[in-house]
Design brief:
The chain is an alpha+beta fold and 114 residues long. The protein has four helices and two strands. Strands 1-2 form a two-stranded antiparallel sheet.
């Protein structure tokens, strides 16, 4: 070789050797898998009031200090839409009082402060 005669002659691997080395080296670490998300159990809330649930609503909710969609859902195991409707009805009946009415958050409290 005319050019670069002084440099140490790098041992040329054959193509097969290179491929083998690449296969051996490239196997480090498995392919990253997506983490399986936590599966939370589905809350089977009622979408319509039956008589006992409605009675419970009339009895319990006006006693609660903080009344929001979430608290009503938690107490009565009803859907969010149903909780909103129920809160509006209770307000019309004068059983609960509105504190804040926001597009996304309705906050009520008890009507009578005994």
């Amino acid at each position: 070789q005319g050019h670069g005669a002084t440099m140490a002659v790098k041992q040329q691997k054959s193509k097969e050797a290179k491929a083998k080395a690449a296969m051996a080296g490239g196997g480090k670490g498995k392919k990253k898998k997506w983490a399986k998300g936590k599966v939370r159990e589905k809350a089977f809330n009622m979408v319509l009031f039956d008589k006992p649930a409605y009675d419970k609503l009339i009895a319990d909710v006006p006693k609660m200090k903080l009344i929001t969609v979430a608290t009503v859902v938690e107490r009565l195991k009803v859907g969010g839409s149903l909780a909103r409707a129920a809160m509006n009805e209770l307000e019309e009946k004068g059983l609960i009082k509105c504190v804040a009415r926001h597009q996304k958050q309705l906050i009520f409290t008890r009507a009578s402060h005994a």
